[in-house]
Write a structure and sequence with these properties.
CATH class: Alpha Beta
Radius of gyration: 18 Å
Distance between the termini: 27 Å
Number of helices: 14
Shape: globular
CATH superfamily: Alpha/Beta hydrolase fold, catalytic domain
CATH topology: Rossmann fold
Length: about 300
């Protein structure tokens, strides 16, 4: 089993992380920053916040200026009311706005889960902002929707929560019961290593989930962008149009994938190179689950640093 913590050194470095708030249009984004040099943005997923990068920040900031934001709707960033405020276009604009507000014209983008989805969309919709792309356990969007179109049973079984999150209000009530007991069990159960989340870590997560509006904001990502009724009823010509109008990723891209992911099947990664025109490589970690950057942080950090050169 890989060592998860860098002992006292990591805790010392954590104290030097700079917490900042940045206005981007009508939205205020909270982020943690450390290091200097080229800009690296670390984008978290669901049900996460900046703290998910606790093992990457100390290592990457030795070489780069690393910024880990709370995405809109999460933790200490603003949480606009209304599902319409969580569409992919707005999520992408948040990141381009943050890059500009940080005084840069482009950045290296690293994304996990929903942060990976935002990263994929950013590389396709605003390629001028992305120097290099690193994706952790998040498939390119086309293979994922194709899995639903083809009614692949294995992925349907893994994606049960996507259907659940389409409901209004119910998911928030269920997930927040008994001090977020189900949500806590969900993230602990989706990792292959019991110490990926310590009791101290879980306390920080519960604090982040407890921020007013945070649970609804995070679930709204699914409600705004995964209308499964619309996806499942698309006609063949509509499917082909969606595929044909999706731009290819032109920047160098690295995908790191934990093969034991309880939510996303490895088959979703097969053929990813079809959607990328730049250099592409993929690294599989056979014994890791969905939280690959927490389960094998040293290996993930090594792969990222090697890719970035």
């Amino acid at each position: 089993m890989e060592r998860k913590y860098r002992s006292k050194e990591e805790k010392t470095i954590r104290n030097s992380w700079n917490h900042t708030y940045q206005d981007i249009g009508d939205l205020t984004i909270h982020f943690v920053e450390s290091g200097s040099g080229e800009l690296v943005l670390l984008l978290h997923g669901f049900p996460d916040f900046w703290y998910t990068w606790r093992h990457q920040l100390p290592v990457l900031s030795d070489h780069y200026r690393v910024v880990a934001p709370d995405l809109r709707g999460y933790n200490k960033s603003d949480k606009p009311v209304g599902v319409e405020n969580y569409h992919n276009l707005l999520l992408t604009q948040d990141i381009t706005g943050l890059i500009g507000a940080l005084g840069e014209s482009k950045a290296i983008i690293v994304g996990h889960d929903w942060g990976g989805a935002v990263a994929w969309n950013l590389a396709m919709m605003a390629p001028e902002y992305v120097k290099k792309l690193v994706i952790l356990n998040c498939p390119h969007p086309i293979p994922l929707v194709e899995a639903f179109w083809s009614m692949k049973l294995r992925q349907f079984q893994k994606s049960w929560y996507v259907f659940f999150f389409q409901l209004t209000e119910g998911p928030e009530e269920v997930l927040s019961k008994n001090n977020y007991e189900i949500l806590t069990k969900m993230i602990k159960g989706s990792t292959r290593y019991k110490d990926a989340f310590s009791e101290e870590d879980l306390g920080k997560y519960i604090e982040a989930w407890s921020q007013p509006g945070a649970l609804t904001g995070s679930i709204n990502y699914y409600r705004a962008n995964w209308n499964l009724t619309k996806i499942l009823t698309m006609k063949k010509e509509q499917q082909e149009k969606l595929i044909n109008r999706t731009p290819k990723v032109k920047c160098p891209t690295l995908v790191i994938w934990g093969e034991k992911d309880a939510a996303l099947d490895k088959s979703l990664t097969l053929g990813t190179e079809k959607y990328i025109e730049g250099a592409f490589e993929i690294k599989y970690l056979p014994e890791c689950g969905h939280w690959v950057h927490l389960e094998a942080p040293n290996t993930v950090n090594k792969y990222i640093l090697s890719f970035l050169g």
